[in-house]
Structure formats: C-alpha cells, structure tokens
Design brief:
The protein is α+β, with helices and mostly antiparallel strands. It contains twelve helices and 13 strands. The protein folds into three domains: 94 residues, no CATH class; 88 residues, Helix Hairpins (Orthogonal Bundle), CATH 1.10.287; 148 residues, Histidine kinase-like ATPase, C-terminal domain (Heat Shock Protein 90, 2-Layer Sandwich), CATH 3.30.565.10. The strands form four sheets. A five-stranded mixed sheet has the order 8-10-11-13-12. A four-stranded antiparallel sheet has the order 3-2-5-4, with helices on both faces. Helix 7 packs antiparallel against helix 8. The protein is rod-shaped, with a radius of gyration of 48 Å.
Length: 465
C-alpha cells in the first residue's frame, strides 16, 4: 500500500509539470510563429527584416547624382523613407520644418527624422546623403519584416506589430489551457476531500471507501480521514453497545423492582385494613405514600426508556390541532393549583409537521407538568408554539424559582437533578425524556432562567422523510 502511495504525484511535481508543460507550449508557439514568418518571406509575401536598410544603402549611389531641382523620387526604392533638407543643414544635425524642401514622411515620423529621434519599439536609423548642389537628403529606415506589396503596406497596419500581437494572444491561450488543465486536476482532488468531509459530516461511517487521490498529499489526507471514519465508527459502536447495556440494565431494574414494590404495597394495604393504633397507622400511611412515589418513579423510568428506544413511525400532524391538545393538557395541570395558563401560537395557516405524535406530545406535557409543579400559586405558565428558521419551537415558561445551575449545565441527562429549590421529584427523568424525544427529531432542548424557568424544545420541521 505504501508503494502505491509513493508512486503518486506530489504537489511539487504537479507544479513543476505545469511549468514545464507551459514552457514547452510557449516554445512551440514561438517556433510556429517564427516558422510562419519564414514561410511568408519564402513565398514572397513578406520582405526580409534588412530590406529597408539595403534599400537605403543602394539609394546613396543614386542620390549622389541628383540635385534638389532634379530630384527623382521614383528612382528610389519604395522602401526608402526620405526627407530633403536645404543646404544649411549639416549631416547628423537636427533640422526644423522650415528647412524641409520635400519628404515622403509625414506626422510623428517626420518630427523624429528632423530630430534624429527613434521610438523604443522598432527604432529608426538614419543616413544623411549630400546631393551635388549641397542639399541634404536624410534617409530613415528600420529593421523588420514588411509586406512586399506596396499597396498592402499602405492599407494594412504594421506587419510586425500585428504579428507580435498574434504571438502574445497565442502565448496567453497556451498558458490559459495549461492552467485550466492543472486547475481541473486540482479541482478533482479537492472534490474528493469535499465529498469525504460531507460523508463524515453526514454521519456515514460504514459506506464505501472515500476514494483515492492522484496527488500523494491529497491521498494521504483521504487515508487519514478514512482512518478517522473507522475510529469514529468503532467508537460509536462501543458507545451504542454501552447505551444498549445501560438501557437493558435500567429496564431490568425497573422490571425487577415491580415485584418487591407490589409486595410492600400489598402488605401495607392489608395492614391498613386492620385496626391499628394511631402511631402504627402513621407508619403504614408513610409506607403507602413511599410505595406510591416509588411507583411513580418506576413509571417515569419506564417511559423514559421506551422513548429512548421508540420505534413509533412519524406521521403528519396538524400543528394547530396538536397545539390545542397541548393547551387542554396545560389547563388541566394548572387549574388544580390556581395557576393561570396562557397559550401563544404562531403557526402558519394549515401548517403540518411530521413527527412522532405520542412521543412529542409526552415530551411537551412533561415540561408543562414541571412548570405547573414549580409555578407559585396564582402564578403563570405560558406555552409558546411557532416556526423559526426551519425548526418548530415549543417553549414552556413559568414564573417559579427557575432552574438551579446544575440543571442548566447538564439538564436533560439521565438522573440529573438540581437542588431542593427545583427538584422535580422524578430524578431528572422528565427532562431526560424531553431531550431524548427532541434529539430523535433532529432538534435540541434548551434551558434557561428568564423571569422563571424557560424550557424550549426545537425540532426540525422536516426531521423525517
């Protein structure tokens, strides 16, 4: 396996390959560009780069036999660019427009010829030739391929500038194609990493392999992620086994306690039927109260275990009707203690959610029961139902003493209770049941103190398909 990884490309190798491929491509373009110039020169379409210099050199012999009055421009090569200056101008000296007798140069090039100036690109060269009458003819020329046809030279822009522009475009295209190829390869590699991250984030810990990358560094990252996935799968499996064992032990304990509790209660009831002194009857009543409370604990514990491993199927629920049933439960729980119950709903008209109706209803009812238990007499309990950012919220608030710090930090854990100011008498099973149900719906349980205790169930609007 290590040999397979070592045989893959590295990022540095990819970069070197990109540079080599781009450089060779540019060299090939330059060779093709230069070869086409040679072909055009051989075919007679273009003149060699030294044609203008040769024409200027040949023109010196012809000019030495001319004068200003008998100057014959047609005797010179069409490639010759000349300006005729009066006798006051010395060879190699700057002249002015007043000293010009004639020229076939115009515009900026004429100004350069008078000033013996030269552009940076394709510089001009000059030859000054005295005519027989002392007049000075200044020849201007440059080195560069040009069109052989004078008409093309007149109509078309400078050949070398256009051809150089074509070369730059071809080089840019070559670099772009090479870059696109390299970017496509890197994109394939990064897509593998992105998909691997999405696989891990989605909780798929037992699917197919995450794949193999062509670059060594990316492949090593994928192997590391694959190892992480296997470790997470093993850890979750161990955790699941431990959870199963814990639940089985709790279920067995709850089942085993039923029989001795029934015996204790039954015997206490038999004793209560007999005539007993007042002191003994108070003991029997205490036993019965304890048995009732222990029975409540067992019932709550069994409900929590059933909710944790519930396999009930989700179903479409009319949100308004579901909220109304919760309101009836809240009213029934608050009325015996003279507590005012308020309901606030903000569901869209006709809104339906898909959830496990029985478990979700039990979770909210547990929060309502806790709120009704700890709200002061003549206090208030409020249930708020609304939709927010793809979640459905059920918030229960009372104006009692609030949650103790232990419950706020670890509320919803099994057997987690607070101090006496807010001990629900159920060993934390109510909050545990609520947390278990809401997590099964892809949501969370949030506890805080805001003028009393506030418990918020958030479930995903589309927790189930």
């Amino acid at each position: 396996m290590e040999k397979r990884i070592n045989s893959r490309k590295t990022l540095s190798g990819l970069l070197i390959g990109y540079l080599v491929r781009t450089g060779l491509g540019c060299l090939a373009v330059c060779a093709l560009w230069f070869g086409l110039i040679l072909i055009l020169i051989t075919a007679g379409v273009l003149l060699p780069a030294n044609s203008a210099a040769t024409a200027a050199l040949e023109a010196e012999d012809v000019l030495s036999t001319m004068s200003a009055d008998h100057f014959d421009a047609d005797a010179l090569s069409p490639l010759c660019r000349w300006v005729l200056l009066d006798t006051t101008v010395s060879p190699g000296r700057i002249a002015s427009h007043d000293q010009v007798l004639g020229s076939n140069i115009g515009g900026r090039d004429l100004d350069r010829a008078l000033q013996l100036d030269s552009p940076v690109i394709r510089p001009f060269y000059y030859r000054d030739v005295r005519l027989i009458d002392g007049t000075l003819c200044r020849l201007q020329y440059s080195f560069g391929a040009t069109y052989a046809d004078p008409e093309l030279r007149r109509v078309l822009p400078d050949f070398e500038l256009c051809w150089l522009g074509i070369l730059l475009v071809l080089l840019a295209v070559t670099v772009l194609l090479s870059t696109r190829y390299t970017v496509a390869l890197l994109r394939q590699e990064t897509d593998l990493l992105t998909n691997a991250c999405r696989t891990l984030a989605g909780g798929d810990l037992s699917g197919d392999s995450l794949g193999h990358a062509r670059l060594r560094e990316f492949d090593q990252a994928l192997r590391t992620m694959e190892g992480l996935r296997q470790e997470l799968a093993g850890s979750l499996k161990c955790q699941w086994v431990m959870e199963q064992q814990r639940s089985e032990r709790l279920a067995a304990l709850a089942h085993d306690l039923k029989t001795p509790l029934a015996i204790v209660r039954g015997n206490a009831e038999l004793l209560a039927e007999d005539f007993l002194p007042d002191a003994q009857r108070s003991f029997v009543d205490a036993i019965l109260r304890g048995a009732d409370r222990a029975g409540q604990y067992l019932a709550a514990l069994r409900s929590a275990i059933q909710a944790e491993h519930s396999t009930s199927a989700p179903e479409p629920i009319d949100a308004a009707a579901f909220a109304a049933s919760l309101a009836d439960t809240g009213t029934a729980l608050c009325a015996p203690r003279g507590i005012s119950f308020r309901m606030q709903t903000d569901f869209p008209e006709g809104f339906r959610l898909r959830a496990q109706r029985q478990n979700l209803g039990r979770a909210v009812e547990n929060l309502l029961a806790n709120a009704a238990r700890f709200a002061p007499e003549d206090g208030h309990v409020t249930l708020t139902c609304r939709v927010e950012d793809g979640f459905v919220l059920f918030a229960v608030q009372d104006d009692g003493p609030g949650f103790p710090p232990e419950v706020l930090s670890r509320g919803g854990q099994l057997l987690q209770t607070g101090d006496a100011s807010r001990s629900d008498g159920h060993q934390g099973l109510g909050l545990f049941l609520a947390r278990t149900v809401v997590e099964a719906h892809g949501g969370s349980l949030h506890l805080e103190n805001a003028g009393g205790a506030l418990a918020v169930l958030r479930i995903r609007q589309n927790a189930f398909p």
